[in-house]
Structure formats: structure tokens, C-alpha cells
């Protein structure tokens, strides 16, 4: 064997082996350094995820940017505050009147609720309280309504939509105070512990409530027609408004007619014979006691008159078999309270 083969690989073979080893090891140090800036570091990836989560948190399901909304409000809140301040200053009397009438109505509702819920009135204290509250409500509502409907007040309210709306709300508040006065007076005159008398009082209060609702729905009509007549597109808007008011009035007239039928025919059933009471078990299914002033419904079931009257405040069917009794009835308003929500249109 010659000396050249024993001395190992030559320079060319060593260079080829180095190239192969270099390729097997992957990119070189210089290549790795050049590619490093393009690959995000773990810290940068984590910061990107945090920012993405924060943007998702500040965005609603419909794509609204809450952060943008907050910036918008922050920029415009001072100007909106100035506009609100100007509106309050120019309508201070109406706003104060509305607040006072609403506070008075809340107080009247408490008096009506407590007076009607009182079971005994031997000394006449509850009746006197109801009558005094009715007189106070009348003395509050009538002057307020007269002041609000002065030509000067109406002319001033026709200058803008919000002014007209505020006047309508105040007029409706005065009407609600007068309606509460009627209910309080009626509750004072119909004070009785007899079940039939309580039922008639409940029907009378319900009728007054629906009659007042019909009157209240027609009160804003003249004000809004006057405002819409001065608008550029008055005729089609007025036609649409009158159509909607006609449909509303039709519904309220039907409710008033049902309340009137309920007042005229307040009996739930007929008086059963002692044999029928004994056959029914001599117990009222509602209170599980002996029937007091028993009443027999059209389906044949017998109840205490007071128990079934309280049931019919919520339902118009037999508590036992759910059979319909009588015609359609309107929702009872036996507690004497008046709604605090105004009619806007």
C-alpha cells in the first residue's frame, strides 16, 4: 500500500466533507442572525395577544368600539351639558310643575291604597282622610290645568318638539291628579265591608280608570295637531297621527264598554240552596272553610263570595274547572291607584 493512501483524505476530499457537514447542520450562524428579526420573540407574541384581547373586550358583539364611544362622549359631554342646561333654564317652570304633580300623585296613590285596604273604619277616620285627599287633589289639578292651557303657554310650547312634548306631559300629569281625586272621592263614598259592596266599588273604580284613560288619550290631540299643522310635511303626518289615534280610541272605547258592563252586572253567580252547599262539601275550595255568603257559578262550583271576588280580580274563569264565566272583562283597578306613566301622544 503506497504512502498516499495511508496519509488520509486529501485537501479536496476534506473540503467536500466540510460542505456536507455544514449543510446537514442547517443554516449557518449568519443566516440565523439574518432571519432572527423576522420571527417575533415570545415576549412580543404575548404582548400582541394581550392587545388583541383588550380590543375584543372593548368591542361589543355588533362591532361597536366602546373605547371610541367613550372618547366621543368625553369630547362632547361638556357641550351636551351646556345644551341641557339651556333647555332646563328655558323650561324650568314646566319641569318644576311636572315634578310637583308627580310627587303629589305618588302621595295620592299611597293614600288610596291604604284607605281602600283598610278593613274597618268605625271612627270614620279613613273616610275623612280619603275625602281630604280628594279635595286636595282637585285643588291641585284644576289650577295646574288652567295655567298649562293658557294661550300664552300653548303658544310658547309650539316653538319646538321638545317644548310641545313637555307641555303634553304636564297636562297629562294634571289630568292624572284630577283622576285620582275622582277615585278617592268614590272610594270614600263606597266604604263598606260587605263583599257585594266591595265588588261594586272595585267595578266602579275600574270604570273610572278606563274613562279617565279615554279622556287622557284625547287630551294631547289638539296640542299635537296644532304643532304638526305648522310643520312642512304637516298633511301626511297629521293623517297618520289621526289614524293611529282612531285605532287607539277604538281600543279604549271597547275597554270602557266592558268596564261599564262589569259595573252594571257585577254579580258572579247565583245564591245556592242549602242542599247544594251540603252536596258541594260544605267547604269553600279556596279558603277551606264554611262558605260565607256562598255563590254558585254557572259551572256549578260554590265558593265564598269574598273569595271568588278576589279571584276574579285576576282571572275570569272558575278556580276549580277553569270554565269561562261571563263575557270578557277588563283588568281590575280596585286598589284606586293611578298610573305614574304619562301619555305622550
TrEMBL record:
<feature type="domain" description="RING-type">
    <location>
        <begin position="284"/>
        <end position="322"/>
    </location>
</feature>
<keyword id="KW-0479">Metal-binding</keyword>
<keyword id="KW-0833">Ubl conjugation pathway</keyword>
<dbReference type="InterPro" id="IPR044235">
    <property type="entry name" value="RNFT1/2"/>
</dbReference>
<dbReference type="InterPro" id="IPR001841">
    <property type="entry name" value="Znf_RING"/>
</dbReference>
<dbReference type="InterPro" id="IPR013083">
    <property type="entry name" value="Znf_RING/FYVE/PHD"/>
</dbReference>
<keyword id="KW-0862">Zinc</keyword>
<feature type="transmembrane region" description="Helical">
    <location>
        <begin position="79"/>
        <end position="105"/>
    </location>
</feature>
<dbReference type="Pfam" id="PF13639">
    <property type="entry name" value="zf-RING_2"/>
</dbReference>
<protein>
    <recommendedName>
        <fullName>RING-type domain-containing protein</fullName>
    </recommendedName>
</protein>
<dbReference type="GO" id="GO:0016020">
    <property type="term" value="C:membrane"/>
</dbReference>
<dbReference type="GO" id="GO:0061630">
    <property type="term" value="F:ubiquitin protein ligase activity"/>
</dbReference>
<feature type="region of interest" description="Disordered">
    <location>
        <begin position="1"/>
        <end position="47"/>
    </location>
</feature>
<dbReference type="InterPro" id="IPR017907">
    <property type="entry name" value="Znf_RING_CS"/>
</dbReference>
<keyword id="KW-0863">Zinc-finger</keyword>
<keyword id="KW-0812">Transmembrane</keyword>
<feature type="transmembrane region" description="Helical">
    <location>
        <begin position="130"/>
        <end position="148"/>
    </location>
</feature>
<dbReference type="GO" id="GO:0008270">
    <property type="term" value="F:zinc ion binding"/>
</dbReference>
<feature type="compositionally biased region" description="Basic and acidic residues">
    <location>
        <begin position="22"/>
        <end position="35"/>
    </location>
</feature>
<dbReference type="GO" id="GO:1904294">
    <property type="term" value="P:positive regulation of ERAD pathway"/>
</dbReference>
<keyword id="KW-1133">Transmembrane helix</keyword>
<keyword id="KW-0472">Membrane</keyword>
Amino acid at each position: 500500500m503506497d504512502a498516499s493512501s495511508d496519509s488520509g483524505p486529501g485537501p479536496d476530499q476534506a473540503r467536500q466533507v466540510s460542505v456536507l457537514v455544514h449543510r446537514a447542520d442547517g443554516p449557518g450562524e449568519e443566516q440565523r442572525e439574518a432571519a432572527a428579526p423576522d420571527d417575533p420573540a415570545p415576549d412580543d407574541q404575548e404582548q400582541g395577544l394581550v392587545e388583541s384581547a383588550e380590543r375584543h373586550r372593548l368591542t361589543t358583539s355588533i362591532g361597536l368600539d366602546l373605547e371610541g364611544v367613550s372618547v366621543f362622549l368625553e369630547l362632547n359631554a361638556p357641550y351636551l351639558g351646556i345644551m341641557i342646561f339651556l333647555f332646563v333654564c328655558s323650561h324650568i317652570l314646566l319641569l318644576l310643575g311636572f315634578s310637583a304633580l308627580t310627587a303629589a300623585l305618588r302621595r295620592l296613590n299611597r293614600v288610596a291604597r291604604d284607605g281602600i285596604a283598610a278593613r274597618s273604619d268605625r271612627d270614620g277616620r279613613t273616610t275623612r282622610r280619603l275625602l281630604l285627599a280628594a279635595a286636595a287633589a282637585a285643588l291641585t289639578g284644576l289650577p295646574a290645568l288652567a295655567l298649562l292651557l293658557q294661550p300664552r303657554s300653548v303658544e310658547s310650547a309650539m316653538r319646538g318638539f321638545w317644548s310641545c312634548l313637555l307641555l303634553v306631559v304636564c297636562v297629562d300629569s294634571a289630568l292624572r291628579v284630577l283622576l285620582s281625586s275622582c277615585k278617592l272621592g268614590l272610594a270614600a263614598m263606597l266604604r263598606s265591608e260587605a263583599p257585594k259592596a266591595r265588588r261594586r266599588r272595585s267595578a266602579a273604580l275600574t270604570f273610572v280608570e278606563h274613562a279617565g284613560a279615554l279622556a287622557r288619550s284625547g287630551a294631547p290631540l289638539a296640542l299635537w295637531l296644532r304643532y304638526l299643522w305648522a310643520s312642512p310635511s304637516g298633511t301626511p303626518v297629521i293623517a297618520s297621527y289621526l289614524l293611529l289615534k282612531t285605532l287607539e280610541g277604538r281600543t279604549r272605547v271597547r275597554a270602557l264598554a266592558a268596564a261599564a258592563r262589569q259595573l252594571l252586572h257585577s254579580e258572579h253567580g247565583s245564591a245556592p240552596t242549602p242542599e247544594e252547599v251540603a252536596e258541594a262539601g260544605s267547604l269553600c275550595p279556596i279558603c277551606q272553610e264554611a262558605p260565607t255568603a256562598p255563590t254558585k257559578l254557572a259551572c256549578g262550583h260554590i265558593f265564598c263570595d269574598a273569595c271568588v271576588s278576589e279571584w276574579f280580580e285576576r282571572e275570569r274563569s272558575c278556580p276549580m274547572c277553569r270554565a269561562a264565566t261571563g263575557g270578557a272583562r277588563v283588568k281590575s283597578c280596585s286598589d284606586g291607584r293611578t298610573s305614574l306613566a304619562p301619555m305622550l301622544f
